[in-house]
Amino acid sequence: MKAMQGGQGGGRPDQALIDEGKQIKLELAEREKYLGEVDSKFTTLLKEVPNMAAGDVPVGASEDENVEVKTVGEKPSFDFAPKNHAEIAEAKGWLDKERAAKVSGARFAYIMGDLVLLQQAIIQFVMNALTDPVVIEKIAKENNLDVSTKAFTPVLPPLMIRTEPYDQMDRLEPRDDRYKIEGEELWLQGSAEHVLGSMHAGEIFEAEQLPLRYLGFATSFRKEAGTYGKDMEGLIRMHQFDKLEMESFTTAEDGPSEHLLFVAIQEYLLQQLNLPYRVLMKCTADIGKPNARGVDMDAWLPGQDKYRETHTADYMTDYQARRLNTRVRTDDGLELIHTNDATAFALGRAMVAILENNQTAEGDVRVPDVLRPYMGGREQL
Asked: Is the domain of 239 the same as that of 296?
């Protein structure tokens, strides 16, 4: 058996090499500790930096400086004083907040009867539309978008999320608007995209897998901190609400066009329900820390004589992916993916808009044509 190079006879290593190896191990441990401390400080500082706004985002100091891009649809005219949705729903026995307050407190409701059937009809309509590649192709073509026509995968996600992925999504703040599970690092999610966007943390996609599009349905929870005394009637600003939310993962190249597709889908859904609405470009103060671009849509509510937000579409570029370490393998190597999320329908607000825009003098509600097949052909509630 040959002696080791630089060693003594009998195959035993030189003591000097052993001592040198021990010293390298000690120095490596010290440097790894230092690297961990520096990396932790760097990550903390990095998390404080918001995403860079896209070039076409209007500069503004508050949401009052959001820019109205267009209005779509004709506001309904009535030969009677239109009621708000709460008046209509309570008179029909569809909404009971008084009994819910006894059981759960303020900002909860029992939703009953035909209003439940209406919500289920909206869900089924949206699910059928967005899981159909023919519909996606139609929307893309009508809006001159060169995007994949891949359909959405419906998802029933978990309704709770751990602190770490919530923070990585940068949707945990403001914490005083979130519900935390006592004694655990676990929170009730505030919207389906919080648990959809984080589900691929630490994963690497192959380029041909993208875009990956999800349509999540979740009962969501928010404290609505700072809104006490506001919107206490009806279904707006509830602590518990149901939402259909779109989420997608794309390459960096396809991220901007995916955002425009999501906006186009939102307009399609509103138009299918024949709801008048306006489109707003959100300004730099209102887009949100992880977002590079944001678009809101507000439906017209005749019972309140104003527009109210029903949809938002957010484009995060690689901001969330950098924190989640979600990447894609391309011809140029590993790259961070881009994420988009957008409201398909916040069910409560969708029903608010339907009730107020389709009310009759008798206090009934006309069912939008597109929803009638999902309600046994009923034309009126």
From this structure: yes
**Local confidence pLDDT in tens for the 381 residues of the chain:** 344 444 445 567 788 888 888 888 888 988 998 998 898 888 888 888 999 999 999 999 999 999 999 999 999 999 999 999 999 999 999 999 999 999 999 999 999 999 999 999 999 999 999 999 999 999 999 999 999 999 999 999 999 999 999 999 999 888 889 999 999 999 999 999 999 999 999 999 999 999 999 999 999 999 987 666 666 778 888 999 999 999 999 999 999 999 999 999 999 999 999 999 999 999 999 999 999 999 999 999 999 999 999 999 999 999 999 999 999 999 899 999 999 999 999 999 999 999 999 999 999 999 999 999 999 999 999
- Nearest residue to 290 via CA among 93, 127, 107, 53: 53
Cβ atoms 323, 50 nearer than 8 A = no
Write down the pTM of the prediction: 0.89
Q: Clarify whether residues 35 and 178 are in a common domain.
A: no
Q: What does the DSSP 8-state code read for residue 280? A: E
The H-assigned helical ranges of 131-206 are: 133-142, 163-168, 192-196
* Full domain range(s) for residue 19: 14-44
Is residue 107 a part of any domain in this protein?
Answer: no
Task: Kindly state the DSSP code that residue 70 receives in the 8-state scheme.
Answer: E
CB 46 within 8 A of CB 318: no
**Cα 115 to Cα 355: distance, rounded to the nearest angstrom:** 9
CATH number assigned to the domain comprising residue 360 = 3.30.930.10
Residues 63 and 183 in one domain: yes
Number of domains in the chain: 2
